[in-house]
Amino acid sequence: MSNNNNLFKYIFAVVVVFIIGYTMYVLFQNKKEENNSTLDQTSTLSNIQTDLRFAITGLDTINPIISNNRNVQELSKIIYEPLVSLNENYKLEYRLAEEIARDEENSYIVKLRKGVLWSDRSEFNAYDVVFTIDFIKQSGVPTIYSENLREVTDLAVIDDYTLKITLATPVPFFEYNLTIPIMCKNYYEGEDFAVSEKLPIGTGMFRISEMSSNVIKLAQNEYYWDVDKKPMATEITVNLYGTMGETYAAFKNGEIDILSVKIPNVEEYIGSLGYNKIEYKSRDYDFLSINSQNDILSDPAVRRALSLAIDKNTFMGILGAGHITSNFSLDMGSWLYTKDLNVAVDTEQAAQILFDAGWERTTNSWQKREGYNTKRLGFTLTVNSNNQTRVAIAENIKEQLSNFGIYVNIRYLAGDAFSSAINNRDYEVAIVGIKLGYTPNLTTFFGEGNIANYHNDEVSEIMQNISNTTDEGVLYEKYGRLYEIYLEEAPYIGLYRNTETIIYNQGLVSNIKANCFDIYHNIEKWYRQ
Question: pLDDT by residue (tens digit) across 399-431?
């Protein structure tokens, strides 16, 4: 009987070992297939290189809160984390925050993610968020994030993972303003950021492992909470350069894998071979603002005709590389830009619209009889005389519309005089340029007191609806209707926007989805061949 028991135990042990071994084999094969699935078709696990090479030109400080260096701000996205981030379509994604709920009209309850560790293994909590926001609000140190928090008046910690943020006045899509890199209170409290020699710690997928006068080394953060974003790259070398000339030379020599550049003619510095180039739309947007309180321009038919009579493609000869025609503020890639507002030139349709509205084309102009008076279709176009590009665009528009029979007088104003004219709505039509925010907020264009004096009852209702909801279905519906009204009534005419550029070596295998907020989307899948 004893021998039978021993035999049974032996067989049972063999079966258990076999099951465990087989299970481990299957898991290994699945992991291997998972890794292979992220590889380029020409790559294998044996020939990829998991170190990446980046660059910073003109480093001021690696601290993202006080740095004014564009490359530092880009790099900060993979070292530090905000409460919320934005994906490649500028759609909000929770990161250190697990949920943000509007508590009242001007306050928010923020639930934080539990189990997040700083790269020194200390625990992230609500006091880190308060420390970061308080520093930005109260330190007096210039920071690019001050505007994000301008309306914040109070912070209250409810518990270690919950806090309440109160605003002075309601801010549409305020959650988008919480894309601020959060800093560790216990690590930084009492430190002078300007002179501190501490290596910064973060909660991101990479940590700073080494820093010298000419290089910053990043390693995988082994305590990173988001296991779904474990990067293929094991380390990143960030080379530091004093000038863009040095940076371009290093890229050309194959010492840098990827670089964001401001200039459109980068080929003049690095040639045109051996690398790939991606352009994406920037936040710099120029448009015509039409004062809807003007006698003639108050007619939507006139504004619609103007939008169809201007050929924006002719601007490209003036603007050159690094620009693209643009029809709406959100066409830089926003997730709520659900309809291509392609306002192409169509002078025949423009003429028909004017004719249907009671205008007649004489030899040189469009005119309209009202009682004993005859109106001539025309307006004064205000432009900032300090901006020679916009002056050239204004003169181009004048020539186009003159050929169509619409008289345009250009008013050249400089500096403060131009700003005053826009702020006081002292213009008929003006070329305005603004740097847009990341949010889908359209208050500047359609809200109360908008810059075009534009009012439409349905639009006002839509603006109220979208400011009081986070329901995506409702937002898609309301924005879609807003686009239809925009095309029908044309209170603004989009002109063009700048583009920005990413260049990367052909050896970098990646699915780059760069935008103005983050050039490192999908970095967890990047590697070198």
Answer: 999 999 999 999 999 999 999 999 999 999 999
What are the start-end ranges of the E strands in 139-269? 152-159, 162-167, 206-211, 215-220, 235-241, 258-261
pLDDT (tens digit per residue) in 302-311: 999 999 999 9
Q: Would you say residue 22 has pLDDT above 90?
A: no
Contacts of 117 by beta carbon, 8 Å cutoff, 6+ apart? 123, 124, 203, 223, 225
Q: Round the CA-based radius of gyration of the chain to a whole number and report it.
A: 29
Helix (H, G, I), strand (E, B) or coil at 210: strand
Domains of the chain are 49-59+204-274+506-529 (3.40.190.10), 80-198 (3.90.76.10), 281-499 (3.10.105.10)
End-to-end CA distance of the chain: 64
Residue 429 forms beta bridges with which residues? 290, 381
How far apart, in whole angstroms, are the C-alpha atoms of residue 468 and residue 443? 13
Cβ contact 149:136 at 8 Å: yes
Q: What is the pLDDT of residue 524?
A: 95
Total Cβ atoms within 10 A of residue 448: 9
pLDDT score at 16:
47
User: For residue 249, what are the CA distances in angstroms to 88, 124, 376?
Assistant: 30, 41, 58
Angle between helices 472-489 and 457-467 (to 10 degrees): 150
Query: Phi and psi (nearest 5°) for 222?
Result: -70, -10
Predicted local distance difference test score (pLDDT) of residue 12: 52
Buried b (16+ CB within 10 A) or exposed e, 110-134: bbbbeebbbbeeeebbbebbbbbbe
